[in-house]
Design goal:
Elements: E1 2-7, H1 10-16, H2 19-26, H3 36-43, H4 47-59, E2 63-71, E3 74-81, E4 83-88, H5 90-93, H6 98-124, H7 145-163
Parallel strand pairs: 1-4
Antiparallel strand pairs: 2-3
Helix pairs in contact: 1-6, 2-6, 3-4
């Protein structure tokens, strides 16, 4: 498994822009391969539906077929994400081609929807008020695009340095967290 896979093809961006497919990718535990049935069970979804989306992700190289085993006359296919992190190629992001822009926008929306769903589930299941202290929010700062990119790079470097050895879920007292940073331009509503 690669650390980073740079998505350079429109088919890859379209495939990963589907919110359901992002959920499937997130269901893989660490670097452990899983079958479509195992992912379906984790998500509580029909196997056929998951299998369809897994095949789509495999076709464009986002998932890899790792192994095939025969159990009771049935071939079980084991998949794994091709990388720990997926990044859209910067040159694609600078295009004005409508279908590419729409796919990138949909991918951004899908990622945000997954983060939003995690956030709402966490709030609904919070056992204490401590959770509110884990969210930082700053708004109405005026930055250039370059300053925004610089800030994102600083945050990325700091976070990656801190969390690099935090994937061991067997460490005592730990639980899974989704860590996100957003820099969103403030857009006023049109009247």
């Amino acid at each position: 498994m690669k650390d980073i896979l740079v998505l350079r093809e429109l088919d890859q961006i379209k495939a990963i822009s589907h919110p359901y497919r992002l959920e499937i990718i997130e269901c893989f535990e660490e670097e452990q391969p899983a079958t479509a049935k195992q992912i379906a069970d984790r998500m509580g979804e029909p196997h056929a539906k998951i299998n369809y989306h897994i095949k789509t992700l495999q076709k464009v190289g986002i998932l890899e077929l790792i192994d095939e085993k025969v159990k009771s006359g049935i071939i079980e296919k084991y998949y794994r994400p091709a990388a720990k992190t997926f990044v859209i190629d910067r040159s694609i992001m600078n295009t004005s081609e409508k279908s590419v822009v729409e796919s990138i926008n949909q991918a951004s929306i899908s990622i945000f929807e997954n983060i939003s769903n995690d956030f709402y589930r966490a709030i609904e299941n919070a056992n204490d008020l401590d959770y509110a202290q884990k969210m930082l929010h700053y708004n109405d700062y005026y930055l250039t695009i370059e300053e925004t990119e610089e800030l994102q790079n600083i945050l990325k470097t700091t976070l990656e340095s801190y969390i690099k050895d935090k994937r061991d879920k067997s460490r005592e007292g730990t639980k899974a967290y989704s860590i996100s940073t957003l820099a969103i331009p403030r857009v006023k509503k049109k009247k």
